[in-house]
User: Which sequence fits this backbone?
């Protein structure tokens, strides 16, 4: 498994599934053209780009370049790296017929091709003994429960309030939120943010 500092943007969940077998980093999806109308997702991409850098890895077809160009114009260029896979004719196993242009997408690429694309893009590969991207321990599902952000009465409202405070998408599921939080914060930083939120609420009630 290759540890990479930057977050990676792909088009869909099958691309994410393929890439997650190769790299250890946060991988986020545009949902195809869905990102064009999803301002919260774009805010997330910008936040990831500012915090740890972003690698855009879209399919080599026309639609992939439309998505890439949209993101290129929406995120500061110094925070973005571009990874490109080659044009390889064929179809993915799950599909009955090839795509419109007959090219394999990211999901159909072999691991060594994806690794080459990431290295050519200038991805930051972390050694196994390298320090973590952020100090402090990772956040777990049990932490979310303990902090009142999952599995309890009012947890959904607390999640939304916290995400709003942290300038992150407010309607993330607990699992999606856990992934994003671990990309941006340590447990200690999250606990402090939750405590601040609780203190503000108490002050507002007094």
Assistant:
């Amino acid at each position: 498994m290759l540890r990479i500092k930057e977050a990676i943007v792909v088009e869909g969940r099958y691309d994410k599934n393929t890439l997650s077998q190769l790299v250890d980093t946060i991988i986020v999806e545009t949902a195809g053209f869905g990102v064009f109308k999803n301002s919260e997702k774009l805010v997330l991409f910008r936040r990831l780009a500012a915090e740890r850098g972003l690698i855009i890895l879209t399919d080599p077809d026309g639609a992939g370049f439309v998505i890439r160009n949209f993101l290129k114009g929406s995120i500061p260029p110094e925070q973005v790296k571009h990874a490109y896979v080659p044009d390889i004719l064929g179809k993915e196993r799950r599909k009955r017929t090839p795509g419109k242009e007959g090219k394999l997408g990211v999901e159909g690429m072999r691991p060594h091709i994806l690794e080459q694309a990431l290295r050519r893009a200038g991805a930051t590969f972390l050694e196994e003994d390298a320090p973590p991207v952020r100090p402090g321990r990772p956040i777990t599902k049990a932490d979310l429960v303990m902090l009142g952000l999952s599995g309890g009465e009012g947890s959904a409202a607390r999640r939304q309030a916290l995400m709003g405070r942290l300038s992150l998408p407010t309607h993330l599921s607990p699992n999606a939120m856990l992934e994003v939080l671990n990309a941006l914060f340590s447990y200690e930083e999250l606990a402090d943010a939750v405590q601040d939120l609780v203190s503000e609420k108490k002050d507002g009630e007094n």
